[in-house]
Write a structure and sequence with these properties.
Layout lengths: L10 H15 L9 H11 L4 H4 E3 L3 H10 L3 E4 L2 H6 L2 H5 L5 E3 L4 H10 L3 H10 L5 E5 L3 H13 L6 E4 L7 H6 L8 E4 L6 H14 L6
Parallel strand pairs: 2-3, 2-4, 4-5, 5-6
Antiparallel strand pairs: 1-6
Helix pairs in contact: 1-2, 2-11, 7-8, 8-9
Length: 213
């Protein structure tokens, strides 16, 4: 191991070169359709498990790009994920990113009903009357509430990024969307987080610069 003298504007490029080489050395071959998403999650976390655990519905990346081009809103379950999303790039397509977790009405409703703010946030998002990409990196209860609304016919999300991290109901909540009719990017298992939710959003946003369809 030795020190590399890398220019600041070259650090990210060099990081992706290292990721690509280590994947190749490990004999891991990513689906080209999603490789840039997987690599950005690895870049964000330094965790190569994402090469095996990220699950994608058919055509997920293209579907997400289509929604972004139509001005879809991205709703997160944490202000940390909200902060990490490139909102300027999203705004260039007419979209915006939102998080309702800190809203007073959400806190009051959650307290009144004895449920999580994340669940109430999903209900509030459903009332926006817009196409929504949900980027869930923390609260499995957000995924559970979205699935409940979908099953009851109250509301059907256009896209779900389900990458909450943790131990209680996390694995089960993610599996609710695997194989569903809702397009998804899900990280199976316990790992994930707000940083991963934002990384997936940004990976797709950045790749749209290379997409000339």
């Amino acid at each position: 191991m030795s020190y590399e003298n890398v220019r600041p504007d070259e650090i990210e490029k060099r990081s992706f070169e290292i990721i690509t080489k280590e994947l190749e050395d490990a004999g891991i071959h990513l689906n080209e359709e999603y490789s840039y998403i997987v690599k950005r999650c690895i870049h964000t976390s330094a965790d190569f498990d994402y090469a095996a655990t990220l699950a994608f519905s058919k055509g997920a990346a293209d579907e997400m790009k289509t929604l972004i081009r139509r001005g879809a809103c991205i709703v997160t379950d944490t202000n940390m994920a909200l902060a990490g999303i490139n909102k300027k790039r999203l705004a260039g397509f007419g979209g915006e990113a939102c998080c309702f977790m800190a809203d007073e009405d959400v806190a009051a409703e959650a307290g009144k009903r004895g449920i999580t703010r994340a669940a109430v946030s999903m209900e509030k998002a459903a009332r926006l009357g817009r196409e929504i990409i949900f980027a869930i990196g923390n609260a499995p209860t957000a995924l559970i509430r979205l699935h409940e609304m979908m099953e009851s016919g109250e509301f059907v999300p256009k896209f779900v990024i389900g990458v909450p991290v943790g131990f209680v109901n996390v694995v089960w909540a993610k599996e609710l969307f695997i194989g569903s009719d809702v397009p998804y990017i899900i990280n199976r298992g316990r790992k994930g987080g707000s940083n991963i939710a934002a990384a997936i959003c940004n990976a797709v946003l950045y790749d749209m610069d290379n997409d000339h369809r």
